Amino acid sequence: MIDKFSVSARGKELLKNASVKISHGKRYGLLGPNGMGKSTLLKLLAWRKIPVPKNIDVLLVEQEVVGDDKTALEATVVSANVELVKVRQEVADLQNAASCEEGADKDDTNAEEDAGEKLAELYEQLQLMGSDAAESQASKILAGLGFTKDMQGRPTKSFSGGWRMRISLARALFVQPTLLLLDEPTNHLDLRAVLWLEEYLCRWKKTLVVVSHNRDFLNTVCSEIIDLHDFKLHFYRGNYDASERGIEHRRSEVNKNYEIYQNQLKAAKRTGNKAQQDKLKDRAKFAAAKEASKSKSKGKVDEDEAQVEVPHKWRDYSVKFHFPEPTEFTPPLLQLIEVSFSYPNRKDFRLSDVDVGIDMGTHVAIVGPNGAGKSTLLNLLAGDLVPSEGEVRRSQKLRIGRYSQHFVDLLTMDETPVQYLLRLHPDQEGLSKQEAARAKLGKFGLPSHNHLSPIVKLSGGQKARVVFTLISMSKPHILLLDEPTNHLDMESIKALADALDKFTGGVVLVSHDSRLISRVCKDEERSQIWVVEDGTVRNFPGTFEDYKEDLLKEIKAEVDD
Questions:
Q1: Residue 262 forms part of a structural domain
Q2: Which among 144, 238, 428, 496 could disulfide-bond with 433, CB atoms 3.0 to 4.6 Å apart, if both were Cys?
Q3: Contact between residue 224 and residue 235 where contact means Cβ atoms under 8 Å apart
């Protein structure tokens, strides 16, 4: 239990007089809007700036492994378990020394016996450390995160940043620290790897704190929820759905107490009695402190607790995404007919005989392992890639709204969001053009003080909102979305799901967030699941829930093995 600590970063207060209690063997989900201090809290725990007992080893997964000549498997085992590597090296050194002495005069019988005893001790140590099973265990973890046998033998420097992040995650799972801290671990995973990680962490016996905006992930993995709200950490038992009920109850109580206090204060002000008003404020502070004491199971209110604020209205955070109603088009809007594609410098990759189409109202989820060609398929649909064979048919005047994993490349960093939007869409109506652009940015949840700041100063989530605003202003007929949730918080993902559900144009989605896919592809009549694997694109004969169920059966069998 760490009591009464405050945290500020870059002059912004994140936590004020907060308390945290983390118990052994529990799996915590850490919630809160973007930019409110979740990642900072994990770093403070990892750096032990928030006191952590010395006997507890802490590991935060936040950076990709450094690329070098070590294979993915070596990086997972060798770099992760330093003690194991040290003992193995000692064994190798003793064996080399013994082989060098073969055939020479053995004058020092005692030294030879000592070396033999030392080797026996080291072998026993390796056995206790599970040396024989180390590589197979690491290989199993890497396979679960999407690494084939061939990939496990490749040097880490040959992998992209996203795959190196997976190696970092594999190392952490292999080491099994007493306190494991994960910051958005699903961002670099495909759907299958996310489901595997859920299943693996459900069996985690040690302590876990995870920041994630993936609702299904939190529901499956977490046994406790910590909600960072109003500069405090609030604890709820159960998974994310259970915490929602608890948060709603707290919201109701906070607003009720605020209304009572305001009514009493107004009555006191009408009498003009200043002493009565001050007494009322002191009583309200004391009541709030007493309530805080109950949650800590204390018997009395101390002086520090009595300094809490008087009741205030619940500070809500809400976002509403909106994509305008597109004009109707005669089908088909967009078709790939017997399309094949390969990259000139990648002989190991090819998509063949792709035959798909999108109409108004069609909602498609593209699923399959990372590297199979999901993003390539989106690029072919968008027209960013030209097929090697086959035909692409697009309706004239078709407007496509595109969200890419690498959306930052589209932004002009020295411009403000307002400048950027008005340069690309100068034809704003109604209010002044600047006010119209700011109103749209506000709807997508970008705080007003960021509207006129250079884009380079925005966080990943804030930049994402600028891109979504731009997409909305283009009035698209089809939305092509590649991992749109990666930089969004929970409220924004809900808002995106609501907006896509209402959108009457075509939607093609690549996402590892199964809740978002379920919302977008819930209507069986207009929804399709395209599976990209083994160089082909096929239509899955069932719903997304059917596809997910099939994956889960495979994964449970693997983890149980």
A1: no
A2: 428
A3: yes
> Could you tell me if 22 and 28 are in contact, meaning their C-beta atoms sit under 8 angstroms apart?
yes
Q: Which of 219, 206, 134 is nearest to 170 (CA)?
A: 134
Tokens of 458: 């925005």
Whether the per-residue pLDDT at 225 is higher than 90: the answer is: yes
Domain boundary (205, 227, 249) is at: 227
State the first-to-last Cα distance of the chain, in angstroms, to the nearest integer.
38
> Is 403 within 8 Å of 467 (Cβ atoms)?
yes
> At which of 174, 202, 227 does a domain end?
227
Cis amide prior to 454 (ω within 30 degrees): no
Q: Do 342 and 218 reside in the same domain of the chain?
A: no
To 10 degrees, what angle do helices 417-424 and 433-443 make?
110
pLDDT in tens, 506-555: 999 999 999 999 999 988 888 999 999 999 999 999 899 999 999 999 89
One-letter identity of residue 122: L
Mean pLDDT computed over every residue of the chain: 83
**Residue 521 is part of a domain; what is its CATH number?**
3.40.50.300
Total number of domains in the chain: 2
> 211: domain range?
38-227
